[in-house]
Every structure is written in structure tokens, then in C-alpha cells.
Design brief:
Structural class: alpha/beta
CATH class of the largest domain: Alpha Beta
Radius of gyration: 27 Å
Strand order of the largest sheet: 1-2-3-4-5-6-7-8
Distance between the termini: 68 Å
Number of helices: 12
CATH superfamily of the largest domain: Phosphoenolpyruvate-binding domains
Strand content: 5-15%
Helix content: 25-40%
Bound molecules: 3-methyl-2-oxobutanoic acid
Oligomer: single chain
Number of domains: 2
Number of strands: 8
Length: 306
């Protein structure tokens, strides 16, 4: 996508469908805060996901299971304020869509309170009813199949999904169920590239891959991986910058300058008229010099002089 004027309206799921129909590959990134969202938006990224990965990469939780609705709403609001043009997808946290009623109530909060345009839910066949209910209620939904991190306690560990015949068939069913339930797109996470490509070829909605090869309709990366900000880099991620290195170098240089007294310098400081200060301190031409002291006058006393 080319850069767009400030007044251009925010993208909708209809625009995403058009990109897909035009055969354009869709670049999506996660975002969790105002300044990063503003930069990604300026770069023309058409879809930003406020992923529940915020729990691990920003809040220091062990998994996404601990992330709450309040935390997701807080971060979604910041991203919506930062990005004017991108479609904002809010990730529904663990158990926030366990029933259709929960799903509608919580999705409604993302759209009405936080200003997101769509929500994402994990699960294929098992989540299809919830997706259907949300879509009927007017909430655009992105599905998420393959590795579903909110199920980590059931899965045991993070690993590539769909490698066996049964698992591959189940994954295909999951993706089809999400599509038939009315989702506008589906994330396909940690799936062998041939299977992800085969799923993509069979769907009428875009697949957004993460660790699923280049055959998907689009790609998503966790922004901290993409920027090289974390200490752990998943195999499927590619850093496009080294922000960790840049921040480390900046903090080290700053500490050294503060310790050496070279920060702040003249450029970061302001000055006042010395005569005014002399007057305030009682060292003006009309002030008496205090008895026996040439360093203080009759002006504002220092603590030690009280
Ligand atoms: O929470 C997240 O960041 C995600 C992406 C990995 C798709 O769900």
C-alpha cells in the first residue's frame, strides 16, 4: 500500500477483502502502544493486531492466559489513538468468549469503549458458534487456528501444529469452520508451509500466517520480534531492526554522560539574567554583604543559613 493523506478514512474489513481480491499480500503487525501504532500506521501497515501477546512481551507474564479484558482495553485504546488509518483488531483474551453472551458483551466493549473495528478469537470448530453469534451481532471477527496460545495449558508446549494426517485434516476443518461462521480473515499460526498454502488455496477469506510459510494471503509478526526488542527470538520471526541493541547503547551512553556531568549540556539547558539571580539571592548592588560572609547577601537564605 502506498502512503495515504491524513484525511483518508480508516480501513474497514471491506478494504481488507478488496486487498485480498486484488491479490495483494497483507502485512499485519501487532501493536500495543500509542507511539508504535502511529509509526506503523505512517508506514502504511493496513491492519494492526492488539494481540494478547501483550501479556508476554510487554507485561512480563509467562503466557497469554493471565491477560485480562481491562489490560486489553487499555492497550487497544492507545493503539486506536495512535493509528488513524489502519484497521484495529483487538484480541479477545482467554475466557472472554467462553459463552456467546460473554463474547458479545466483551466484543462490544472493544468496539464501543476502545474503538477497535474487529476482534480476534482463537479456535476453529470449537469456536465457530461464537464467531457466528458475533458476526450476526455486527462484530467483524478474525479467526485463529493452528497453534492457539491460549490453549497452552491443554497443549503442554508451543509446537508446530498439523504435522500428522489427522491433525492436518482437523486443521483444515478448523479453517473452513471459521470461514463458514463468517470470519473475515483467519490467522494460521505455526503450521507447516505446505498445509498453510493448501488451506489458503481452499478458503475465500485471507489467511494471515505466522510461522506458516509464504503461501498465506498475508503475514503477521509480533512487533517486539519484528523490532528486535526482546531477548528471545522465535524461529519463525525475522527482526527488521535491533531496538534492543539501540536502547542498550543509548542507556549506556546516557548513564556515562550523567556520571561525567556532560548531560545536560548547553543545548538542553536554559539561562536567566545573572543580575536578576544576584538580586534574588541578595547579592545585588544595593544589598549589604552579610557580616563576615562575601558569598551570601540579605536575600533568600539557604537552608544551612537558617
Ligand atoms: O497475540 C498475538 O500476538 C497473536 C499473534 C501471534 C497472531 O495472536
Amino acid at each position: 500500500m502506498s502512503s495515504t493523506p491524513d484525511t483518508a478514512p480508516r480501513l474497514s474489513v471491506v478494504d481488507i477483502a478488496r486487498l485480498y481480491a486484488d491479490g495483494e499480500r497483507i502485512a499485519m503487525l501487532t501493536a500495543y502502544d500509542y507511539p508504535t501504532a502511529a509509526i506503523l500506521d505512517e508506514a502504511g501497515i493496513p491492519m494492526l493486531l492488539v494481540g494478547d501477546s501483550v501479556g508476554q512481551v510487554m507485561l512480563g507474564y509467562e503466557s497469554t492466559v493471565r491477560v485480562t479484558m481491562d489490560e486489553m482495553l487499555h492497550h487497544t485504546k492507545a493503539v486506536v489513538r495512535g493509528a488513524r488509518r489502519a484497521l484495529i483488531v483487538a484480541d479477545m483474551p482467554f475466557l472472554s468468549y467462553a459463552t456467546a453472551d460473554d463474547a458479545v458483551r466483551n466484543a462490544g466493549r472493544f468496539l464501543r469503549e476502545a474503538g477497535a473495528q474487529a476482534v480476534k478469537v482463537e479456535g476453529g470448530v470449537r469456536t465457530a458458534r461464537v464467531i457466528e453469534t458475533l458476526v450476526r451481532a455486527g462484530v467483524p471477527v478474525m479467526g485463529h487456528v493452528g497453534l492457539t496460545p491460549q490453549a497452552i495449558n491443554a497443549l503442554g508446549k508451543i509446537r508446530v501444529q498439523g504435522r500428522t494426517r489427522e491433525a492436518a485434516r482437523a486443521l483444515l476443518h478448523d479453517a473452513l469452520a471459521v470461514q463458514e461462521a463468517g470470519a473475515f480473515a483467519v490467522v494460521v499460526e505455526l503450521v507447516p508451509e505446505q498445509l498453510a498454502a493448501a488451506i489458503t488455496a481452499r478458503l475465500r477469506i485471507p489467511t494471515i500466517g505466522i510461522g506458516a510459510g509464504a503461501g498465506c494471503s498475508g503475514q503477521v509478526q509480533v512487533v517486539t520480534d519484528f523490532l528486535g526488542l526482546g531477548t528471545f527470538m522465535p524461529r519463525h520471526a525475522k527482526p527488521y531492526a535491533d531496538l534492543r541493541g539501540a536502547i542498550l547503547a543509548a542507556a549506556t551512553a546516557y548513564k556515562a554522560e550523567v556520571e561525567a556531568g556532560t548531560f545536560p549540556g548547553a543545548a538542553q539547558s536554559s539561562r536567566m539574567d545573572d543580575a536578576v539571580l544576584d538580586e534574588v539571592l541578595g547579592n545585588g548592588p544595593d544589598d549589604r554583604t552579610a557580616a563576615g560572609r562575601s558569598d551570601i547577601g540579605a536575600g533568600i537564605p539557604l537552608d544551612r543559613d537558617l
